[in-house]
Each structure stands twice: as C-alpha cells, then as structure tokens.
Amino acid sequence: MSRALAILKEVFGYHAFRGTQAEIIDHVADGGDCLVLMPTGGGKSLCYQIPALLRQQAGLGVGVVVSPLIALMQDQVAALTEAGVRAAVLNSTLSSSEASAVERDLLAGRVDVLYVAPERLMTPRFLDLLDRTRVGLFAIDEAHCVSQWGHDFRPEYIQLSVLHERFPNVPRIALTATADALTRNEIIERLALDDARVFISSFDRPNIRYRIVEKDNARQQLLAFIKAEHMNGDGGHDSGIVYCLSRKKVEDTAQWLTSHGINALGYHAGMDAQVRQHHQARFREEEGIVMVATIAFGMGIDKPDVRFVAHLDLPKSMEGYYQETGRAGRDGLPANAWMAYGLGDVVQQKRMIDESEADEAHKRVSSSKLDALLGLCETAGCRRVRILAYFEESAGPCGNCDTCLEPPATWDGTREAQMALSCVYRTAQASRVHFGSTHLIDVLRGNASEKIRQWSHDKVSTFGIGKDLSVAEWHAIFRQLIAHGLLVIDHGGHGALLLGDPARAVLKGEQSVTLRRQVSKPGKSGERAGRGGPRTDHTATMDADTLSNWEALRAWRTSTAKSHGVPAYVIFHDATLAELARSAPASLDELAEVPGIGASKLERYGEEILEALREV
Ligand code: ADP
Ligand code: ZN
C-alpha cells in the first residue's frame, strides 16, 4: 500500500481516492507543480493536505496553504486538528501572542499544514519567517482570485508569483473550481505556472438534481418545495440557500419564510456588518438554517451539508448559476438545485445589462451569457447536458434533472409562433415603436385595454387572433421564442421585443417551431419531480432502529461540537453519522471500518460513540 493511501485511511478514514486525487497527490509529493481544476465538493483539500503530510514526514517541511477566507481557514484547521494533524492558521484574528506561538511552532518544525491569508503571506516579516522555515509545498487555494475579470478578484493574489521567484525549489499546487479557459490561462500566467501539470476533472456534480420551474407565485412555490422535500422527521428542515437579486427581496423573503415556520436568516452587503457576520456564523455552525441572500453570500461557504440551493431570480450567467448551485451537496450526498423563473427575470437582467456602465462589447458578452442561461431554462432536453456543454464537456442525459425525470411534451407551435411574430411586426409597423410581451399578449388575446385603444392596436390584423390561449400559455410561448432567438429583447430597458434574424423563415412558413408544453402546476412541481428519485433526507430510508441510533448520534454530535466550539460537520459529516447509525458498530474494530473515521477520531470519540449507541 502506498504511503498516500495509508494516510488517507489512517488520518481521514477514507478507503479510496476519488478521480484524479491519487495522481495529483503523487505528482505534488514528488515535488511537481500543478494546477487543479475540480468542481466544488470534488475533494481538492486532500490534494494538498496529503502531500503536505508526506513531505513533512520526509523532512521536507511544512505545507503552506494560501486561502482567501478566514472562516474557511478556521474550518479546515479545526477539521484537520480533529483528525490529528498539526494544523495552524496565521491571520488577522490572532492576538500577537497567539501569532508568536504559531511562529515558534513553525520554526521548530511542529506544524504540518499552515493556513495563511494572502495579505499576511506577502508581508516582508512573514516572507522572512518563511526564509528561516523549511517549506515543503505551497498550495494556492481558490486560485481564480488572481483573475482580474473573475468574480472574486483579490489584488494580493497577483503578488503570489513572488513565491516562485523566492522559493524556486518548493512545489506549488494551485486549485480552483472555476473552469473556463480564460481564467485557467490567467492563473497559469500570473502565478508563473507555465511548466505545471494541469489536472482537469469533470465538472459534473452528479449528486445535484437540477430543476427549473415556471414562476407563478415564487415564494409559495419555494415554500411548497421546501415542505415537500426538505423537512426532517423531527419537524426541522435541511440547511439551504435561497438566492434573490435585491436586498429588499432578501429581507422580505427571509421574513416571510420565518412567518411560515422556516428557520430563515438574511444576508446581503447592505446589512450591518455585525448582523451579517452573525447570520453567517449561525448558518455555518447550526443545523437546519435557510440563508436567504444576494450573491454577496458566496465564496467560502464550504458547509458540506447544504441540501438545497434555490433561486428566486435568474442569475446573470451560466457561470453564476453553476457556482451558486454548486454550493449544494459538497458532501456528495443528494442535493437539489431549484429555480423559479419567468420572462420578467429576463427583462430585468437585460435592463441591468443595458443600464450598466460597461462598454458595448462587454454588454454584448453579458447578453449572450444571459441567452445561454435562458436556453437552459427553456430546454426540453437534459439540463445537465446543457450545462456541461456550456463548459465544453459532453455527456448523455443524466436521469437526475427535471426534464430527464419527467420529459416535457413538445408540440408543433409553428402557427402560434407565427401569430406572435407577426403581432410584433404589425404593432411595430403601426406605431413605429416596439412593445413588450404583456401588451403583445393583450393584442393577441383581443383584450381592448386602454393602452391598446391609445395605440389603436385593436385595428391591427393580429388583434384577437390568439384568444384561444391563456395569458400564461402565451407567456410560455414568448419566453421560448426569445430562447430560440426568434425574438430579441430591445436595448433600452423596457422589455420591448424585436424580431430576431431567424424569425423571417418562420413567418414565411419555411421553418417550423417546436415548443415544450408547460407541465408544472405552480407549487406542485416540487412534489412531483421529487417522487421516485433519491431523497435528500437521510432519515427517509431508515428503519426504526437506525432512526433511533441516528437521533442519539446527532444529539451526541451537537453537544460535542458545542463543547469544542466547532460546527457539527467538523466532528463528523452527516454521511459518516448515517453510516454509523446504519451499521451500529459494537466494537472499536468495527467502528474503524466506517468511512470518515480515522485513527485520531477513533481514539478521541470511539468510546463515546459506542456508549451513545449502547444507550439507545
Ligand atoms: P472541495 O474543496 O473540492 O470543494 P473538499 O476537499 O471540501 O472539496 O471535499 C469535499 C468532501 O469530500 C469532503 O467532505 C471530503 O472529506 C470528502 N472527500 C474528499 N476526498 C474523499 C475520498 N477520497 N473519499 C471520501 N470522501 C472524500
Ligand atoms: Zn438530465
């Protein structure tokens, strides 16, 4: 057995490496540089933690990990310490005497893994300290922070190229979950990783179930979804994140959910910093909190047991959507990505693009990113295939998204498309301006509103030709026509619709249009799609004995976590706890076989766990 595998078992309690982990670990432990692109939850941490241990054991020195977020560092250090690794952190939260103690340990070779914030690392004092320390490797976590165009740019990251100049013989491993080629090349260039090996994993997150429903009453739909799929046996619910576009909506939604029995907190950049921090800490440390947030709640959420991410508003791009939904299910257990969307979202995003200060080229890119996301929302095919294709990865239908589980019926919508398109054409011709979908639908349905009379649109030839369809059905058609590029949202922010280039062929009858039938009944979609698929509730499949064990173990974990001052998942992940409940080990030997229980945790908690199980 290789040393790396032995450490995986002994320290972390896992039985096998995942994907490219083994290869990466060998490469870095041998002193090679590399860039690792792996999705969230893929297991990046072990890719530097195990080489750090291997190199420290070989007398080569400490593994120094650069990480941008304090909360994230503290969690990692707590988890490593629980696993018996000599881990430490140097950041602004330490008092100077605590910092000196860490520095002394470092110089004496008593630290295996040191986490440090980039601004700390770059101080002359710290670089000088490193000169006097044996350093076995540098790991640069969240390496996309060097990318100036990326979403998490950190100026300090740019200076990290100094590491290579100053410590040319120390191997460096840079890691990120941001996949696109632009970011990748920027990381390589800025960190001088030209000769590094690049390890790219599949970006698929098979445990996440994607679902996009038509927005009706989004809050009610969300509540129905949570109630149908995320309640636990004990009346509590799973941890989840709900993303909203505006600060006001965050506050309203959090309040509304709370009044409906959901343990919800809000988070946005306009909140009092202390309140915000308090909410984040509670989300991290407690179980079963739903965080309603703007995208300000982002990087550094490494809580492994977030069971769902819901979007009440459309994100800006596929990258945004994938990153946000990726915060669900880091522990590999089933999780949900759920979104409610409507045409209003698209118009709103489009307006934000138009009204932004960006130049024309940038606006065009933003628009096409939005279009890609719209395509995802309106596809009749597998969501995952679409998402992965966007990231240039090919895959077959996944069987774990709404369209795979309940393939939407399609219908020949050529005639209806022609009606809508010619309505756009006729109204614009009559009035010399363009109109939005609400007005166009009124015209089609022959609804003689004031605005219609004002523009004399009851005189155009398309007035009333579409009265057989409901407003909702027309909305669905308009959305799909936009997704297909037959209609284009005008610049100027009012949601006016213009004919797209391919519209001509449809109007001339040269091309047919296939549309998906809207199946989802508002509020019901959650329940329906949940049927027959994997449940995210651990307790759903447990028999009575297992359930009692689970409850006893959870109580034990809660009190242990409290007394150690760490989040529950630092003690054990849910997956480990569920396995303990199921297998109910009666001896330390049996206990050692459970994945997630390494030597240190066995020694520290073994007896207590056996005791807790005996008392059930
Ligand atoms: P990332 O940083 O890539 O988002 P993490 O390093 O936090 O992912 O790992 C995600 C989860 O997977 C963690 O709970 C970790 O303990 C677990 N994990 C990582 N590698 C393995 C493995 N080889 N076997 C079992 N679990 C693993
Ligand atoms: Zn699918």
UniProtKB/TrEMBL annotation:
<keyword id="KW-0413">Isomerase</keyword>
<dbReference type="Pfam" id="PF09382">
    <property type="entry name" value="RQC"/>
</dbReference>
<keyword id="KW-0233">DNA recombination</keyword>
<feature type="domain" description="Helicase C-terminal">
    <location>
        <begin position="218"/>
        <end position="373"/>
    </location>
</feature>
<dbReference type="GO" id="GO:0043138">
    <property type="term" value="F:3'-5' DNA helicase activity"/>
</dbReference>
<dbReference type="GO" id="GO:0006310">
    <property type="term" value="P:DNA recombination"/>
</dbReference>
<dbReference type="InterPro" id="IPR014001">
    <property type="entry name" value="Helicase_ATP-bd"/>
</dbReference>
<dbReference type="GO" id="GO:0005737">
    <property type="term" value="C:cytoplasm"/>
</dbReference>
<dbReference type="GO" id="GO:0003677">
    <property type="term" value="F:DNA binding"/>
</dbReference>
<keyword id="KW-0479">Metal-binding</keyword>
<feature type="domain" description="HRDC">
    <location>
        <begin position="543"/>
        <end position="616"/>
    </location>
</feature>
<dbReference type="InterPro" id="IPR002121">
    <property type="entry name" value="HRDC_dom"/>
</dbReference>
<dbReference type="GO" id="GO:0016787">
    <property type="term" value="F:hydrolase activity"/>
</dbReference>
<dbReference type="InterPro" id="IPR032284">
    <property type="entry name" value="RecQ_Zn-bd"/>
</dbReference>
<dbReference type="InterPro" id="IPR027417">
    <property type="entry name" value="P-loop_NTPase"/>
</dbReference>
<keyword id="KW-0234">DNA repair</keyword>
<keyword id="KW-0378">Hydrolase</keyword>
<dbReference type="Pfam" id="PF00271">
    <property type="entry name" value="Helicase_C"/>
</dbReference>
<dbReference type="GO" id="GO:0043590">
    <property type="term" value="C:bacterial nucleoid"/>
</dbReference>
<feature type="domain" description="Helicase ATP-binding">
    <location>
        <begin position="25"/>
        <end position="197"/>
    </location>
</feature>
<keyword id="KW-0238">DNA-binding</keyword>
<dbReference type="GO" id="GO:0009378">
    <property type="term" value="F:four-way junction helicase activity"/>
</dbReference>
<feature type="region of interest" description="Disordered">
    <location>
        <begin position="511"/>
        <end position="544"/>
    </location>
</feature>
<dbReference type="GO" id="GO:0009432">
    <property type="term" value="P:SOS response"/>
</dbReference>
<dbReference type="GO" id="GO:0030894">
    <property type="term" value="C:replisome"/>
</dbReference>
<dbReference type="GO" id="GO:0046872">
    <property type="term" value="F:metal ion binding"/>
</dbReference>
<dbReference type="InterPro" id="IPR044876">
    <property type="entry name" value="HRDC_dom_sf"/>
</dbReference>
<dbReference type="InterPro" id="IPR004589">
    <property type="entry name" value="DNA_helicase_ATP-dep_RecQ"/>
</dbReference>
<dbReference type="InterPro" id="IPR036388">
    <property type="entry name" value="WH-like_DNA-bd_sf"/>
</dbReference>
<keyword id="KW-0347">Helicase</keyword>
<dbReference type="InterPro" id="IPR018982">
    <property type="entry name" value="RQC_domain"/>
</dbReference>
<dbReference type="Pfam" id="PF16124">
    <property type="entry name" value="RecQ_Zn_bind"/>
</dbReference>
<keyword id="KW-0547">Nucleotide-binding</keyword>
<dbReference type="InterPro" id="IPR001650">
    <property type="entry name" value="Helicase_C-like"/>
</dbReference>
<keyword id="KW-0862">Zinc</keyword>
<dbReference type="GO" id="GO:0005524">
    <property type="term" value="F:ATP binding"/>
</dbReference>
<dbReference type="InterPro" id="IPR006293">
    <property type="entry name" value="DNA_helicase_ATP-dep_RecQ_bac"/>
</dbReference>
<keyword id="KW-0067">ATP-binding</keyword>
<comment type="similarity">
    <text>Belongs to the helicase family. RecQ subfamily.</text>
</comment>
<dbReference type="GO" id="GO:0006260">
    <property type="term" value="P:DNA replication"/>
</dbReference>
<dbReference type="Pfam" id="PF00570">
    <property type="entry name" value="HRDC"/>
</dbReference>
<dbReference type="GO" id="GO:0006281">
    <property type="term" value="P:DNA repair"/>
</dbReference>
